[in-house]
Known about the structure:
alpha+beta; Peroxidase, domain 1; Glutaredoxin; 2 domains; four-stranded mixed β-sheet
Amino acid sequence: MSSNATLARPYARAAFELSQAAGALGEWGRQLDMAAALASDPRVGALLIDPRRSQADAVALLLPTGTAAGSAFVQFLKELAANGRLRVLPDIATQFEALKREAEGSLKVLVRSAVKLEAEQIEKLKSSLARRFSREVEIETALDESLIGGAIIEAGETVIDGSVRGRLARLAQELAH
């Protein structure tokens, strides 16, 4: 069976194209994020696959308050429900966000470091990555003490491993060969 990311791809693309045509990327992004958060909850997830619930009930569970019944977003969720894809909403939201950022010329970067980064370090890293990728960069940081030292930078498909753990692993591999 295909992975959720593969199943989500055409739906994320369709959501992106619909929202972009309507000039509502931000609104769709917020709605998808909320629906995805709900779909990720194990209790809601169980309700989504409950055969006793109608598709309309499943869609209603995921709708943000105040969403118009005939809106394009509601129609999108109904299409997902009809195709049994409500459970892949988290992957759809993630891929939608990537498409949105690409269209806006920005890039979300995750920096996992062994120690907490100072604001000045983050700003230097941000400007350096913005030059490298020729895009606006938004940095999210996470602490990962298992890295021993240094950091791992994940920018889209690119991963830069500057951690001590990564260097030791590469050294061990070179010594083994």
